[in-house]
Amino acid sequence: MPVEIKNLSHVYSEGSPFEFQALKDIDITIEDGSFVGIIGHTGSGKSTLIQHLNGLLTPTSGTVLVDGEDIFSKKKNELIQLRHHIGLVFQYPEHQLFEETVHKDVAFGPKNQGLSEDEINQRVQQSIKMVGLNYDDVKDKSPFELSGGQMRRVAIAGVLAMEPSVLILDEPTAGLDPRGREEILAQIKYLHKKKKMTVILVSHSMEDIGRLVEKILVMNAGEVVFYDSPNRVFTEIETLERIGLAVPEVTYLMRKLKEKYPEIREDIFTVAAAKDEILKVIRG
Amino acid sequence: MLKDVTIGQYYPTGSVIHKMDPRTKILFTTAFIVMLFCINNLWGYLATLLILVAVTLVSKIPVSYIIRGIKGLVLIILLTVTLNLFMTPGTVIASLGPLNITMEGLKVATYMALRLIFLIVGTSIMTLTTSPIDLTDGMEWCMRFIPFVRRYAHELSMMMSIALRFIPTLMEETERIMKAQKARGANFETGSIIARAKNLIPILIPLFISAFRRADELATAMEARCYRGGENRTRMKQLVFENRDRVSFVLMLMMIIGLILTTMIKIPLLFPV
């Protein structure tokens, strides 16, 4: 499902002294099957933007088209239907767990979709496996006796069990240990590659964004600064730094190396690519 | 939805009233409430209305904002008015089937409605112009004059300021959890009342858990900073009465005298004396 964002603006608490314009005239298209990363300083409007994509927030002006249909002209029931197709994983999703067992909690989404018992069970098993947990080990446990990282995975499984065609994740790895991060990111990559899911990933880690996504959306003060491939975006170091962001560490390294070896490329943002490039230059 | 609650909200405009000592505002509001229950004719209510309008103008708070506070209590006001209208015995002026509207009923109902509205407006002007921290500081000082309560003045005001501090946080949290469950296809908007009540479980459980977690973290943080109650505790911000407070004490006295005088007016206005 392509998601088109048309001239979207959002103002919080309009008409009160706390009025705040969170989004200004956003106009972008997220193609079907793409992997988009959203970066921006805290308060740049990332979370506000993604909450418009499944109709949780209503825009002050502008609209969002999913599959060519205006989602804000839909009825309430249709909007609930839409949320089955656009899965949104909030920041710290473990705070939304509520059921007695992991199985029941993951089944909450599919149950709301009105699926059959068998289908629900199958999806729950599948999605728990997908986030790297052992179904038989955790299914009867209370979600509250799990570790933080495991809770996060269960919460993500709760959204995956709905089998959305667009998956939006708001900083899914915040506060996880390095291994937890790697595993969750690997799963996201797998879902995108194998299941052809459209993925939108909000993250503060330039490294993660650099090696995962196909397109980066850079936001600042509610506006789009760049919406382009990592190659192009990460060469704009000055602009990125001015709005409080940075490029991956390895890109800085390549920049330094360029002072000594002018022939080296600097539009590199993964360690693997940097290794290849350095070897290429050294070996001539 | 939750953003429409205005009672207890702070609306900064930087006016003279905002800068006033919270103790002055608490005393003024208390005097206002007491007087509201002393006045006994429409002249008094007219005078009260004038006072409220003047205070509102000085505070620079939009009238629409203050009126929004009344909206939430419309039901209670209507209930009181209806009950008083039909239940008060006296000279019948109109009948509606078995129900009789009396002159006395009409009078009591009008007075009650005005009293409630003025009560809400008066107290909400105080909370709108005073930040929660100032308010509890002022309350702590006032509690020192109440026997028995005096011993716990600091603890009580600490509890109050923590509670006030966490209202917006918990509201935000509720909204976040609600959105997260909506994203998982939960439906809070349609269905029968029982179905909707059941749908609250996915919100309430995470909310309770997070409230307990927050309370626990706060307690730890306070202990880590060696908090141990009010004894020998000094303040960073001392409350000091200034000239504007003295002026408002004079105004307060004038209000009390003025309103007492209105109770002596014997000229009937709409209703017989």
Structural class of chain B: mainly alpha
* Largest binding interface between chains: A-B, 28 and 24 residues
Q: First CA to last CA of chain B: what distance?
A: 44 Å
- Count the DSSP helices of chain B: 11
Q: What would the principal axes of the Cα set say about the shape of chain A?
A: globular
Number of helices of chain A: 12
Question: Quick one: overall form of chain B?
Answer: flat
Kindly estimate the percentage of residues of chain B that lie in beta strands according to DSSP.
Answer: under 5%
Q: What kind of oligomer do you see? A: heterodimer
Please state the average pLDDT score of chain B. 87
What is the mean predicted local confidence, pLDDT of chain A? Answer: 91
Rg of chain B to the nearest angstrom? Answer: 23 Å
Low-confidence stretches of chain A: none
Helix content of chain B: 55-70%
Helical amount of chain A: 40-55%
Keywords (chain B): Cell membrane, Membrane, Transmembrane, Transmembrane helix
Protein name (chain B): Energy-coupling factor transporter transmembrane protein EcfT
Subcellular location (chain B): Membrane
Membrane topology (chain B): Multi-pass membrane protein
In short:
With 284 residues, chain A is α/β, with parallel strands linked by helices.
